[in-house]
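Hello again,

I reread your note about wanting to compare the complex against the isolated chains. To keep things tidy I'm splitting this into two emails, and this first one only covers the full assembly. Below are the input lines as submitted, including protein chains and any nucleic acid or small-molecule components. They are followed by the predicted structure of everything together. The single-chain runs will come separately.
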Amino acid sequence: MEKVKFTEMQHGDKEDYDLLTKFEDKYIEGTADRVIRILKNLDSSLGGYQVSRLEHSLQAASRALRDNADEEMIVASLLHDIGDEIAPLNHSEISAAVLRPFVSEKTHWIVQQHGLFQAYYYNHHYGHDRNLRDKYKGHPFYNDTIRFCETYDQNSFDPTYNTIKLEEFIPMVHRIFDREPHKHVYLGL
Ligand SMILES: [Fe+2]
Ligand SMILES: [Fe+2]
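Full-complex prediction:
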């Protein structure tokens, strides 16, 4: 297999980095498949609920689809909890970061903040402030995030709901991750 000549990045030349670009382009093409693999793992993650994390995710995406949300929001609903797999303490940030190069600022913000907004439904039971979301009052995506939590997320723990199967969402995931990624995200502009 072709490899770069360097052992320290500072010694790489254009030929090395052109070679790496070839590998990276191929690797990036596989992102949707890897994301779907992580999503499937949610089947055996966090217990205690009446549905698995995967069922919850599918249910949230089913609700988005039936609400005639655009494809980006359906996929965001499907993937909004994938961060749970490796970052249960700040899962929203991770899920949002995975989506960020391929979705609008609004969709990214909704996913990034959904954990904090979702606390409205349970924080008081732990003796904490349920209105943490209030600090974002007036933010352009404040109402959208409330709506996401209310109509797609907090209600998607229902084992009797007619949840759409993962297979139906897979082409949508591919279409979103096949988009031209936002340059400002990966170039740090
Ligand atoms: Fe979540
Ligand atoms: Fe969720």
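For quick reference: DSSP finds nine helices and no strands in the chain.

B.
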